[in-house]
Write a structure and sequence with these properties.
Strand order of the largest sheet: 4-3-9-1-11
Number of strands: 11
Number of helices: 2
Shape: elongated
Structural class: alpha+beta
């Protein structure tokens, strides 16, 4: 787990199949496509095992009405994405491509028309969750935050008929950092050359004093 930046302990019963709902705080610290998401377990012997999972999205039940609108402009900068639509004056709902966002700004250009009455404005996001299989007893963690990780490939995707309709929900714990296991640096005995020369001078003086003492005794 040392290649990853964050972990959250998973708590619940010891069933085979589990559902892990991804909390909002996870998305800002993982890759946009969630390819660096992993579920690792630590056994009693200290071994690390990886649990396979399927990433699934629950968009809920939606009602769609066709609304004719014109996309006038779209742009992007370091602060986010910007879309300009020309909408008729009625109740409107429209979807964006899935992106990890923290803020959404909507600008309405009404020109010289009668002032619009703006009612409730809301934003909804799909629920992302993992369906994971725990084959061995262990303390399991949701781990993420590795920009170099690739999307994992597990065999359970070929056996979806074996997955129960209602797997056991797990509680996702608080986020904790994963500290890197960097090898300790070997420090030099004398960092300052002045101290090294001073010690060498003392050694030379002591050797000279012993030599003179031996000569006098003879």
């Amino acid at each position: 787990m040392g290649d990853y930046g964050h972990k959250r302990e998973l708590q619940g019963d010891s069933a085979l199949w589990h559902k892990i709902v991804l909390l909002d705080g996870v998305f800002g610290k993982t890759k946009d496509n969630l390819s660096d998401m992993r579920v690792f377990g630590i056994t009693e012997n200290g071994d690390t095992i990886e649990a396979p999972y399927l990433l699934e999205i629950d968009r809920g039940k939606t009602e769609s009405n066709n609304v004719n609108f014109k996309l006038i402009n779209q742009s992007r900068d370091k602060r986010g994405y910007y879309f300009t639509f020309e909408l008729p004056a009625e109740k409107n709902e429209f979807d964006f491509q899935e992106k990890v966002l923290q803020n959404i700004k909507i600008t309405i250009q009404n020109y010289d028309n009668e002032a619009l009455k703006i009612g409730d404005i809301g934003a909804k996001a799909a629920v992302h969750y993992l369906t994971a299989r725990f084959s061995k007893p262990a303390r399991y963690y949701l781990v993420y935050g590795n920009p170099n990780a690739n999307k994992p490939h597990y065999d359970i995707g070929h056996f979806s008929d074996k997955i129960p309709d209602n797997p056991t929900n797990l509680q996702v714990g608080e986020e904790k950092p994963i500290y890197k296991n960097n090898p300790p640096k070997t420090e030099a005995l004398f960092k300052n050359k002045t101290w090294l020369w001073a010690v060498m001078a003392i050694v030379v003086l002591l050797l000279g004093w012993f030599s003179i003492s031996m000569i006098k005794k003879k």
